[in-house]
Give the backbone structure.
Amino acid sequence: MQRYIGRIRVLTALCVVASLVIIGRLYYLQIMRGESYARRADAQFVVTKNPLLDRGTIFFTDKDGTRVTAATLSAVASSSDHQRYYPGGSLAAQEIGFVAYNNDDVQKGRYGLEQYYDAVLSREDSYSNFFVQLFGSAKTALEGGQGTGDLVTTIEPSVQAELERTLADYGAAWHPRLSGGIVMDPQSGEVVAMAVSPTFDLNSFNTQSDPLIYANPMVQNVYEMGSIMKPLTMAAGLDSGAITENTTYNDKGCITVDTKQICNFDSRARGVVSMQQVLSQSLNLGASFVATAMGRATMRDYFLNRYKLGQETGVDLPGEVHGLVSNLSAAEQVSYDTASFGQGIATTPIETVRALATLANGGFLVTPHFGKAITYDTGVTRALGWGEKVAVLRPQTATTISRMLTAVVDTSLAGGKDKLERYSVAAKTGTAQIANPQGGGYYEDRYLHSFFGYFPSYDARFVVFLFAVEPQGAPFASQTWAPPFHALTQFLINYYQLPPDR
């Protein structure tokens, strides 16, 4: 008798579990996915040229944590079909990407996050056996929530819009061939905004005549960045002990290294110069001095192994390339001297920002990223992990270089007029000659203007990077980028209501 009672209890428990599973599955099918399956059922009564589109949503995240739709589905007029719709139009176009056919009858993510997270956002447009779906969902849950769903990003829509306005205004004033910007949290690597100009409307992407506009030069192109690399050189020199903040050198205006001449931007000699003035006056010979003091092996270690220049960052966008840094494996000292002030090596903007963020966050290398979380079709939300921060500089080094870059803003940038009395801001400009691919060497009248900064200087909330290719009407980045950076800094301080730090 006891044996039969035990069997009945086991059978009852199995029935209860099965009932709960079926109820849960019905809730999932009718409530959570009811709209999707209703669309599929309706589609059986009309003739559709292409398979029905069913795809997860992409969300921005505003400063308060509220999700804002970036990509969704909308009904097609006089049809039960749906198409991809982007409420922001051109907002973060190169970062979001779009959905299109690719030499077949299936719509897939093309470019941007739509492509990178296509496996998450895509949903099979077919009915499968109930038990296959049932146990497939159980397997998905047991394996940690892998499957299809919605993507929540780190992009803050108001900051993204402000960055795009900044680039548009810059374009109207200086007419560059290309410009771009990044706003990132240096502590976590979360990309708050990334923008490129020119851009396009995601809802009418097929009207573009040049497909290159879809690509993202912030991760897919490399550039010689110029003097914004000097802080990395200075930090490496300080961290390795090759120099101190009080080290001086005799600046002669021009020197010859390995039979090649290196000069300051104006070829003028300064005499005995401190390390602070190397950054404040942006002296090429000062950066060259630091590179020589370190030695080739030490500089190579910091630039290639610690800052990881020349390596992909792992950012979650398709098509990322790595920088071109072969000069840092050369035998000639001149290759290291020119690299010290940002010529002769070329890096992607996102690679550059990752390296510069080490100065802003206490000396740690982080992974830049857009993916914040995935909400799976099962209803489970899983935060995405991006690895641990890696220490590459001593905290004292980061503090020292931050103090020096803050002095650049307070006393030298725009003559000190951009200094914020109640907020510390660290920044550096960069002006680089553009290489001539035809005849070798560099153009005499074409430049890349770059600018980076972070704030507050000693516990940075944001690192900002701006660049433009071939702006017209001014030779130096300090002339073109200082006012936009200042305005963007004030916007971020006010929008996030950052407390004063001095």
